[in-house]
Write a structure and sequence with these properties.
Blueprint: H1 3-24, H2 30-35, H3 42-53, H4 56-69, H5 74-98, H6 103-110, H7 114-146, H8 151-201, H9 206-209, H10 220-230, H11 243-258, H12 261-264, H13 273-309, E1 312-313, H14 319-327, E2 330-332, E3 340-341, H15 349-354, E4 366-368, H16 373-380, H17 385-423, H18 429-452, H19 458-482, H20 488-509, H21 531-549, H22 555-564
Antiparallel strand pairs: 1-3, 2-4
């Protein structure tokens, strides 16, 4: 059976499973729609959290980024893993005890203000739409290659599937679907990694194979360093980013994680506060399996790709090169007309002049999109067709699971935090559920638009969403839990200043608006992906200064803040 047929079969079976679960677990009440009725087992919630957390950026893009960036790509590993620990230990149990479904709900009640709630809704929508754009782009990439349809058609198919189970099932349907999606994505990520590790290093465990030796006794990383320097690139294991930027990106990803609305809401789906802590621990174990494997996959894919394509005749290229060329995500241009694929660092002029240069050509001939490395990895390594099809199903599971979680955040922000809490407080439960579904419908349409017109490759887009969450939510949440004196004026001022500063910097240096764009002009040498750290610090300072210059919060609010930090009665979540 060929790859395309197998892909249709495996992807079709997984989609049927997700839709079947959505029908079985459809939401009948707002509590089931928002928090799955609050009765999910900690292990199941840990799996669902891991699937929610490991998006297309983790599955498709992260190893691809590390594969091209080498040592510099480790910021994504450190930031996202560290951020999850920060969220699980520092915030989740307190938010769970406060007893609110959503981040805007927490901010609205903690800061006794509908203005604060509205600002938080606006921030949640901006963060979620930026994040979901990356997921839809991931869905399009998978569909365009493996089902051989246009990227835009792929995005539309993904929209239809997510809409079906997110709108029908709500959080209850999404949770059980995400348990299935975690099983699919982790199996799809690990199988090729184990195969390739065994082939290249003789070790069945990819994490150990990554530091092992190849058949000729050379350490794999030493071999890759040599391949890199031979092609004029910096050594794979050497870092080129400044320490300031590495620190800023890592911290922005960490604190951005802790402010991500779609992950925080997962801790409300378990019966007790104790269960929230347990499910956080389980999720960390499930996440670690993929995150510790990603650097190994990056090295395997990079080594195999360079060995396959560099300075070889184009006529002898394996089938995967032609397959990915059809998608436009890999392009080759024979600049010196010698019929060979010249792949090297075109920034290095001495390297260019050392090659026969009859036409005065300059520049690398092969352009590879970073987002294809994980998906193309089994093809590059010549693995069986069923493994290639499995990876396609895994990529879709990762993108769809996170997209569904984000769509729920968007629909909840509209139905609960805007309509029920502010516009129409006497709305019936049936009416609220209808608005939640209408909100999800419009969210799918906007997400689809961003999937067709993405603002960058998947992981870069997602990194910006983390920066926006860091700049807006993190200080308001952390001060809301740990600072009794923090008031509504401080929180509102901090969130508005933080998110506007981050949006301005993104537009200036990412979209080249306001006359900027060159990395030499970055403020303090910090990239847009890391600027969330600066915006967060500004938010913190503004929040603290404004709160100290304005009246302190009512005593009742200070008592609530005191109460959520007391471990007494931690077995029960109190509703205030």
């Amino acid at each position: 059976m060929d790859v395309q047929l197998l892909t249709f079969l495996i992807v079709g079976l997984t989609f049927a499973l997700y839709i079947g679960i959505a029908i079985w677990a459809r939401a009948g009440s707002t509590k089931e729609f928002y928090i799955a009725g609050g009765g999910i087992h900690p292990i199941a919630n840990g799996m669902a959290t891991a699937a929610d957390w490991m998006s297309a950026a983790s599955f498709i893009s992260m190893a691809g980024l590390i594969s091209f960036m080498g040592y510099d790509g480790s910021v994504f590993l450190m930031g996202w893993t560290g951020g999850y620990v920060l969220l699980a230990l520092l915030l989740a149990p307190y938010l769970r005890k406060f007893g609110k479904f959503t981040v805007p709900d927490f901010i609205g009640d903690r800061y006794y203000s509908n203005v604060a709630r509205t600002v938080a809704v606006a921030c949640a929508l901006i963060v979620s739409f930026t994040y979901v754009a990356g997921q839809m782009r991931g869905v399009g990439v998978v569909f365009s290659r493996f089902l051989e349809v246009d990227i835009n058609i792929g995005v539309l198919i993904g929209m239809a599937i997510v809409f079906f189970y997110a709108v029908l099932g709500g959080m209850k349907g999404i949770t059980y679907t995400q348990v299935a999606q975690y099983c699919v994505l982790i199996f799809a990520f690990m199988v090729p990694a184990i195969f390739i590790s065994l082939n290249m290093t003789g070790n069945i465990i990819p994490q150990i194979g990554f530091g092992g030796t190849t058949a000729d006794g050379t350490f794999l990383l030493d071999k890759l360093d040599q391949l890199h320097t031979d092609l004029g690139f910096a050594e794979y294991t050497s870092g080129t980013k400044s320490k300031v930027d590495v620190f800023a990106i890592t911290l922005a990803l960490m604190v951005g994680t802790a402010g991500l609305p779609h992950v925080i809401v997962r801790f409300f789906t378990v019966p007790k506060v104790r269960d929230a802590r347990k499910s956080a621990g389980w999720a960390l174990i499930f996440i670690a399996i993929l995150y510790t494997t990603a650097p190994a996959i990056a090295v395997f894919a990079r080594t195999n790709m360079i060995n396959t394509v560099s300075d070889k005749p184009y006529a002898e290229m394996p089938a995967w090169v032609g397959n990915w060329e059809k998608t436009g995500l890999l392009t080759w241009e024979d600049k010196n007309e010698d019929g060979r694929v010249q792949y090297y660092n075109d920034q290095n002029d001495t390297f260019v002049t050392s090659i026969a240069n009859p036409k005065g050509w300059n520049g690398n001939e092969l352009v590879v999109d970073r987002d294809i490395m994980v998906l193309a990895n089994p093809e590059i390594a010549n693995l069986p067709a069923w493994v290639i099809a499995l990876v396609a199903a895994g990529g879709l599971a990762a993108a769809l699971s996170t997209a569904a979680g984000l769509l729920l955040v968007i629909s909840t922000a509209i139905s609960r935090d805007l309509i029920k809490k502010q516009i129409k407080p006497d709305i019936s439960e049936k009416g609220e559920l209808m608005w939640a579904r209408v909100g999800a419908f419009f969210a799918v349409l906007v997400a689809g638009y961003f999937g067709v017109n993405p603002p960058g490759f998947v992981a870069a887009t997602v990194a910006l969403a983390f920066g926006l969450a860091a700049a807006s939510f993190f200080p308001a949440i952390i001060l809301g839990v740990f600072d009794k004196r923090m008031n509504r004026e401080g929180a509102i001022a901090g969130m508005v200043v933080g998110i506007l500063l981050m949006l301005f910097y993104m537009m200036k240096y990412k979209l080249q608006m306001f006359g900027g764009g060159a990395s030499e002009d970055w403020w303090f040498g910090i990239s847009p992906e890391g600027f969330g750290t600066i915006a967060m610090v500004v938010n913190l300072i503004v929040s603290l200064v404004v709160s100290r210059m304005t009246p302190e919060p009512p005593q009742s609010v200070q008592d609530i803040v005191e109460n959520i930090r007391v471990p007494r009665g931690a077995g029960n979540a109190h509703q205030h």
